[in-house]
Amino acid sequence: MVHRSRKLTAKSSGRNQPRTGAVKRISRKHWEKHVSSYTSGTLQEPLQETQSSPESEKPHLLQRRETLEVLPEENPPGALSERAEDIYNSVKPTTLATLREAAQSASTTPESATQHLCDALAPQKKGWFSSTLALVILLSGAGLVMAFTWFSILFIFNPAQIGWLNKFLPEWAQIPLGYSEPPQTLQQIQEKLSKQKQIAGKTLPLDDEENSLLLPIVQQRANCQSNCQEIVELRVYQRSTDLEFQSQSDTYFRLAHYLPITGPEESLAIAPLNNATSEDYDANTPLPLTAIKRFEGDGVSPGIWFSLQGQRQQGTNAIAYGQIVYYNPGRTNLQQMLSWTNPNGQLPKWQQVTGGGAKELVIDRTVGLEPQLRVYQVKNVKLYLNPIQLEAISLQPPALKDSAYQNALLIARSGLWTPAFEWLQFIRKQRKGILPAAQAQIDVIRLHAQLSKAQAEKTWASPSQQVLAELIDGRWEKALQVFAASPQNRQEIATLLKADTGRLWNRTVAALQVKPDRPEVQAWAALILAEKQGEGRANSWLKARPKITNATVTYIQGLLKQLNEDRASQTSSHPSQIVGTVQPISKVNPKEWLPVPKADLTLTNNEVWYQIEVSAFNDGKRWLNSPFGNLRLPKDFPAKFLWETLGINIDPIIQIIVRLPNGEQQTTSATIKGVQLQNGVLRLLAAGEAIAENQKNVQPLTLALTDNALEWVQPAPITLAELYQQNPRAVENILPIVWRSLQRSGQISDGDVPKFLQIQEQIGHWPVQVIDLTNDNKPETVLTVSQEAIGSLKDFKMTTQESEKIPYRSRTLILSDSGKVIYTDFQESSQQVLTAIAKISSGQSLALLVENANNYSLKRWSTKNQRFE
Question: What is the pTM of this model?
């Protein structure tokens, strides 16, 4: 065979010689001839050898492959050996056996042998498919193993997590739930909760047979004086179906589900009072939920709806707040749906809004005359455990891509509900059909328009309230009629416009954006600008309007002129209510001051000049605080405007209270003779008797206030020991806080806080005052400590010389009913001192009169920011 291969190679040389590296294929005739030779007697011996061993067959096959392939003549014998070696190594044993069978059958059927050999030598095209299938099976198997492993872990440690599988399992294969603890009677559940310092509330049945029930878990709030129980958890219990407990006389229950409860944040509850259109709230302390009740549902959902609620008193408003919880009987679980708040104390209710089969949940957040409603629909979601959710009907984005529809929703979002609804009714008549989403938006606008229209049609005793109701409802012309009725009306309405926080201005902007050439809307926009930024700004705005006629400009400027004339001619009748700081001055430049009527800038015997920098004053309607950047002087009669605004035309006398270096106080009266307003700083010039023998000894921060400015409030003090008898828990919280405050002030030694009895022994005799300073009907504790009392403590670390450098003044600490520090003077090197607690403007609101480094200030409690400011 080797000889024949070489001969064949020699014959292949010539004109038709293939290029270097190519393999020349022989004809079918030659192939069959070689196969016949292969099966002849000359090859029987090699075939017999291959039957004994696959290895013995490979040399024989090598000879055969040499016959099948013709190497180029240029290839040296070494290349032929290397090629044969590659072929030899690439042949699989299974292929060798196939070749042998083909060779044996070639003598009788050459065609079948040829096909057999070709199939054996062909590439295995289906190899990639089998590999891919094997990989898929392997990964699927691994995933199933991991899933079964995870289910096994849950089954062992927390079977309740896979309890939903019971819906698909036969009765004999049910997964036992709640086996972490055995079934219990209600009495046993109550006893266990009592050991955990919790209380079982009143159970609520979840079905007619009372096989399932809802149990609220109640806990006592710390540092609480009234209404101190809050709901911290809801549990679903189901009657046990175990045979061993069914035979018992008592009913046993298993825990099927539980839901931890946390009340809504305080900022969410009071947000409607701070800004009726704001939906952004800061994180804050959660409020307690104290009651739960079942209430009517949407009429479609199969479950049960519950309302958790609480109440907070905010000034004169009884704010109701809470959460909506849904019980799904199909999944035996509780779902917390949303938090809600209502500034008028009303509860959420289900009512038909969109006209569909299901009712909508309506939450009324209306404040004053501003309608504010939230409407929610029950929507199905693709979640097994929580298959429904409450989705608010929003006006953004518009449901229709129609410019008229979008403009109608634009003015609706600004608060012009009635004009928007009337426009949408016209659009709906023009269209043959309307999408359900668009109809839902229209129905929400209709609900707001009903409230807005009802308020505008009322008869109001106050002109400003009447105008406000008209403007909210978009009745621009009727509001102008009320404005023009009398000068008294104009001044009262001007005050309303000046106090606008944006709700009226936003309405004018939206109305002009849709229809820019409405003169009545342009008039109200100019009046608002004139009151807030001055007449010049209003005139500039008018001139910049692209679509405004000269007649309209003249008409609006006439309204602005009337407003200024009324302001200049009106005489203020309120007495002066001024608080400020005093500093003696030696010389006065009359050109720098606007003189008060019937007053000359001269001094009589024993009088000196006092310059008073005003910290706060009441303009007859509200208190204004320094700096007074929004206090703008009119061009005509600026001095008269200031006299009447301050009330010094009625009462020009002001009291000056001087603190002398030895700690004593002396008071004298002075007469205001001039006023000055520069860069937001308001100063008064007063003349009065010298209060000290040496005027240089008068302290820089001397208090000045008029008789009607403040009404001092001094609750009867009690000692900490007496307060401990009334409220031991509060005092137990207060004393460590007081001790740490003393440490922070740098007057007593640092280190661990002593035990309660040790602190009580040292400061139990200190006096405190209990008074409500935050308008929540919960009294705060005010502790005022003198320097002598601090110096008597065992841990007092200051030397006598250091102690003598401290001025003669006390320090104050105010704690809320929960034990939180809401005001303190106990800061190292602090120059802040609480001077007094006062009631301002004959109202119920209390304020802190605080002496700072450079002036006095009135600090009132901010419910929004939860601090004095």
Answer: 0.53
